[in-house]
Design a protein that fits this description.
By secondary structure, the protein is an alpha/beta fold. It contains 8 helices and 16 strands. The strands form 4 sheets. It has a 6-stranded mixed beta sheet with strand order 5-4-3-2-1-16. The protein has a 6-stranded mixed beta sheet with strand order 6-7-8-11-14-15. Strands 9-10 form a two-stranded antiparallel ribbon. InterPro entries: Aliph_Amidase/BUP (IPR050345), C-N_Hydrolase (IPR003010), C-N_Hydrolase_sf (IPR036526).
Length: about 280
């Protein structure tokens, strides 16, 4: 296993409800990432459909066997691909789903477990929440996926870390909220602090890919980036513009960080489980 991995951040502006156009965009970015010799390319949450779908959810949903999904999985023969769309299950339930594909095969499927339904968000009205937090193996080690709001609940990265993940991928569709000044948003600042803290607490690399563009007056600000296990930003894609940025990481940084600050090693899982069991019995 190579210690070094190059990650391509595909900070795109999906067209709402236009799967064909977004699929073409994905293919173009994948080709560019291959030309840049990246090992994996990461697209944002619902990059294949757009975010503010509401009643369009029914029309843009795809099964894992749909030709559009198979086309993207096939595109993973030269580079690993993480993409997101509205998945329709065999039971005709609808999910916000992220797929990790490699060598022309689906390696892992993550269904978003936390659906924001407050303020400007209305996800739980249209889609169902997933129920699994499961890491997966890649050529570069054990990874976990969190889709946007999943990362705002500490239980999700905690469960990934406790199951061996040393890399966390976070595709997002985060709008700019709580404008602080002309260059910053409260949501942007919150994300940066949150991811830096997780990276240090769990001794992981974190890859955050947020979309850009506007939908119905809502602005998605981008600011995708990669955080190292010491909490330092290793590369960023900038704000409010489409970009394909590559960031090279060294997985030995996780080894060093966990040796110097062994928080994951010293975590007392039985203590947490005992207290959760007591809470559940009340």
């Amino acid at each position: 296993m190579s210690h070094v991995q190059t990650i391509a951040l595909a900070q795109i502006a999906p067209k709402l409800g236009d799967v064909a156009a977004n699929l073409a965009c994905h293919r173009q970015y994948i080709a560019e990432a291959v030309a840049k010799q990246a090992d994996v390319i990461v697209f944002p949450e619902l990059g294949l459909t757009g975010y503010q779908l509401q009643d369009l959810t029914f029309n843009v949903a795809r099964t894992l066997q749909h030709d559009d999904i198979v086309a993207l999985v096939n595109a993973s023969r030269e580079i690993d691909v993480i993409f997101s769309f509205i998945e329709e299950s065999d039971e005709h339930f609808f999910y916000v789903t992220g797929v990790y594909a490699a060598k022309g095969e689906i390696v892992h499927v993550h269904r978003k477990v936390y659906l924001p339904t407050y303020g400007m968000f209305d996800e739980n009205r249209y889609v169902t929440s997933g129920s699994q937090v499961q890491p997966f193996r890649t050529e570069h080690g054990t990874a976990g996926m969190l889709i946007c709001e999943d990362a705002w609940h500490v239980s999700v990265p905690y469960l990934h870390a406790m199951q061996g993940a040393t890399m966390l991928y976070v595709p997002a569709s985060s709008p700019g909220r709580n404008v602080m000044d002309e260059h910053d948003f409260g949501s942007h600042t919150f994300w940066r602090q949150l991811l830096q803290m997780y990276a240090q607490l769990f001794g992981t690399h974190i890859v955050f890919v947020n979309r850009v563009g506007y939908e119905d007056g809502v602005h998605f600000y981008g600011s995708s980036g990669v955080v190292g296990p010491e909490g330092r930003w290793l590369g960023e894609a900038g704000t409010s513009r489409e970009a394909l940025v590559t960031v090279t990481i060294d997985h030995r940084d996780v080894r060093r960080a966990r040796y110097i600050t062994p928080l994951v090693r010293d975590e007392r899982l039985e203590l947490t489980l005992n207290h959760l069991a007591k809470i559940q019995r009340k």
